[in-house]
Design brief:
single chain; alpha/beta; globular
Length: 266
């Protein structure tokens, strides 16, 4: 599914959080949203997922504006995974993942054989099969995050939008998740803090700064030492590692005048 935004803006309390974003995400591609904290990544994702109504501009799925779409119709097209989604209910892991099937069934009808097969496949893809009967409250933060990603997979959407999904995951599960997202034929938009992981697994990057796009394109074009200095305030090089993957090597933070901060190494 193609996701496009045209002059998309969202404001709160008289302040522009996202301003004049133009974006065209090709079907099946993986696009990483990067930028400092407060740059508008999370808000942009919510607008693209139809969870927030833009102050101006529009979002289109396969050329059709999504304004006015029902929650059920939006959920059938795109799944959204929050940074730290939670629930107070003492559900089993399989029940949480099964919530992804809600857009496709009547409120009063339980899961049928197909629904159960989809949920089982999603649990397996996220390495949660052995935890399927465990209480939600007994899970670690990383296990809960993997369960919410499994819920999104069980939703079988055309697109998956994820807000910092690697935050609570250990290195192994970070790599497994990003490999999964990069290999899927679904359209993926994912906000990431780790620039080296974004460069390795994303087809394109959108760099946000103060609510506006600062650069958009292939990772090697977006991640330059100058942009890293201007947007993130760090002194860094961009190089290829021993496996040929683009990676960011940090020398240290920059002071307000653009010089490297004294006495600090990273």
């Amino acid at each position: 599914m193609r996701i496009a935004a045209h002059r998309l803006s969202w404001s709160a309390a008289g302040r522009d959080i996202v301003c004049d974003v133009d974006l065209d995400v090709a079907p099946g591609s993986t696009v990483g949203l990067i930028g400092p904290n407060g740059s508008g990544k999370s808000t942009l994702l919510r607008c693209l997922a139809g969870l927030r109504t833009p102050s101006s501009g529009e979002v289109r799925y396969d050329g059709e504006p999504v304004a006015g779409w029902s929650t059920r119709r939006l959920a059938a097209h795109a799944a959204f995974v929050e940074q730290a989604a939670d629930t107070d209910s003492d559900l089993r892991v399989a029940d949480v993942v099964g919530l992804g099937r809600m857009p496709f069934r009547d409120r009063w009808r339980g899961h049928d054989a197909y629904d159960r097969a989809v949920v089982a496949a999603a649990l397996e893809r996220m390495g949660l099969t052995e935890l399927s009967g465990r209480s939600w409250k007994a899970l670690s933060g990383g296990e809960r995050q993997r369960a919410h990603i499994a819920r999104a997979l069980a939703q079988q959407p055309y697109a998956i939008l994820l807000d910092e999904p690697t935050n609570h995951l250990d290195v192994k599960h970070q790599l497994e998740l990003l490999q999964l997202l990069a290999a899927t034929d679904q359209t993926v938009l994912v906000a990431l803090h780790d620039l080296s992981l974004a460069a390795r697994y994303c087809d394109r990057l959108l760099l946000m700064h103060d609510g506006r796009p600062a650069a958009e394109g292939p990772p090697e074009e977006v991640l330059t030492p100058r942009r890293l200095a201007e947007v993130f305030g760090v002194d860094a090089d961009v190089a290829r590692d021993a496996l040929g993957h683009l990676t960011v090597v940090y020398r240290g933070p920059l002071a307000a005048d653009g010089r490297r901060a004294e006495g600090v190494s990273v």
